[in-house]
Amino acid sequence: MEEGKFNRLQMIAIVIMRVLIGWHFLYEGIGKLMKGNWSASGYLMQSKGLFAPIFHWMADTPGVLSVVDQMNIWGLIAVGLGLIMGCFTTIAAVAGMGLILLYYVCNPLFVGYYYSIPLEGNYLIVNKNLVELGALIVVAVTKSGWYVGIDRIIHKLGLFKKKK
């Protein structure tokens, strides 16, 4: 196999992973949108660590919180749609990594940090967010949207050049 090239089965696996992650983002965003009164306030207020004062300020400032809530909802939806459809896949993956990093930095999983929001398991440093971030790195660097997705159509139309 040529260096930098994936065989068909490998690329299918990456595309499936991309779509599954996209579904997770899309579902989370739509769930928050449909709830109507959803807010990130509780998550931000329980923040601990170095950046906690910034997250607490966001939660305590109504105008900022409103923007944070809307950016969170629509960011999740946009990333999800981009990943599912393979449209601007690298941008969607990087944006998804940014969201996940913000979630993680807000509430890191370090010894001595206890949160009121229940966790799905017992974690120390690594949780599902970091695993999903790792998977998004793979999606971002493999250009799976060029294999199956709207990126393939855009490329065939010559709207952007594939890097070698």
Provide keyphrases for this structure.
164 residues; mainly alpha; 7 helices; globular
What does this entry look like structurally?
The chain is an all-alpha fold. It has one domain. The chain is 65% helix and 0% strand. The protein has helices spanning 8-35, 41-45, 52-60, 62-85, 89-106, 128-142, 150-156.
Tell me the series of helices and strands, N- to C-terminal.
HHHHHHH
Q: Over all CA atoms, what is the radius of gyration?
A: 18 Å
Summed up, the domain count is 1
Number of H- or I-type helical stretches: 7
* Overall morphology: globular
- Classify the helix fraction into a percent range: 55-70%
**Percentage of residues in DSSP E strands:** under 5%
> What composes the largest sheet?
none
Topology, number of strands: 0
Mean pLDDT: 87
Low-confidence stretches: none
What is the structural class?
Answer: mainly alpha
C-alpha end-to-end distance:
16 Å
Summarize this, please?
The protein has 164 residues and is mostly helical.
How is the secondary structure organized here?
Layout: H1 8-35, H2 41-45, H3 52-60, H4 62-85, H5 89-106, H6 128-142, H7 150-156
Helix pairs in contact: 1-4, 1-6, 4-5, 5-6
